Amino acid sequence: MNPHEVLDVIGMTNNDVFTAKQHQVADISKKSANAVVVNEVKNLSPEDQQRALELAQKIDILDTASIMEYGKDTQSAVSNFADSLPSETKTANVDELGSQLLDIVQHSKKIELRQPGWKSTIMKLPVIGKLINHGDQVRRQYSSIKANVDDIVDNVNQTKTQLIDRTKLLDDFYVKNNEQYKELLVHIAAGKLKMSELEQDIIPMLEANNSEGDPLKAQKIYDYKESLHRFSKKIGDLEATAVATLQNAPQIRIIQNNNIVLIENIQNAVNNVIPIWKKQIVMFTSLSDQKAASDLEKAIKDATNEMMVRNVEMTKENSIQVAKQNERAVIDLATLEKVQSELEQTLTEVSRIAQEGKRAREDMSRSLQQLTARVENKLTIGNYSTK
After folding, report:
1. 168 and 238: one domain?
2. Are the C-beta atoms of 299 and 122 separated by less than 8 Å?
3. Is 355 found in the same domain as 284?
4. 67, 230 contact by CB (below 8 A)
């Protein structure tokens, strides 16, 4: 038995019930128990109210498949729109933009601002070549940085274009999100109208017409209640989705505003900051050439004075050394005295060693004679005792 048959059993047509619902929307005070449901509809625009009423009339609460799919179309519109976006727009590039802007700063810091050590440079020939090479090195560094900055500016401009496109897409996404929210409200209102119809009209009438306790009618009433329970959970899910969809709206606008801020910052960097940097690069290169020329002049003068001082110091040192060596004897007196002292010590030591050696030999001779006498004595005693 479908819903139309049930209505026929209780003596009402589907249109009769639906007409009653329209009257309920028009006059809230007639059924205070349905005040929340009525408000769900009255908060909609007149067009959406009519759509909700028509949608509620089409809901077949006993059709499990259609109830499971109820509200699915409200989700698919936004999902299909997101799937239709180009893949490159889905990839966040804010980190890449930050890296590019940081590259500009890092490249500007790579220039070697230190001037060479002029004293060490002067000691290495050619002096002028070393100094000029440093100026060329600074200019080459700035030329390389200028080229890198130009490349980075191109990349930043591309990122800016992507952000502008992303902001436009978010406008479309915002519209789709609002449309989804309105569709959810229509489905929720229609669902609650249908639930109210079942709770207030259909199920009570079925129960009133089953006073005799017909098991088939009782089963039908049970089926309606179970379907109503499942459908109420579906409406609860749609309400939660509606809240989340409503929250998406300010989030989309925040993202758009952030994109606009980034775009304005990029525009400011490209139009104002980068040109200032380039002018500073030209000015610094000129100042670097001036400093190199000034340092070159100073280095040459310092080197001249340094060499003159060094030469006169060497002249003084060499003259004193030559004069001292010229006045020295072939052999210094101290040397002769040292030789005589060492010679006397040598002779004395040799004589002492000779005397000690003589006494040692005499002592050794006496000891040998004693040893010989003792051996002979032993031999004589031994021959006598063997006869």
Report:
1. yes
2. yes
3. no
4. yes
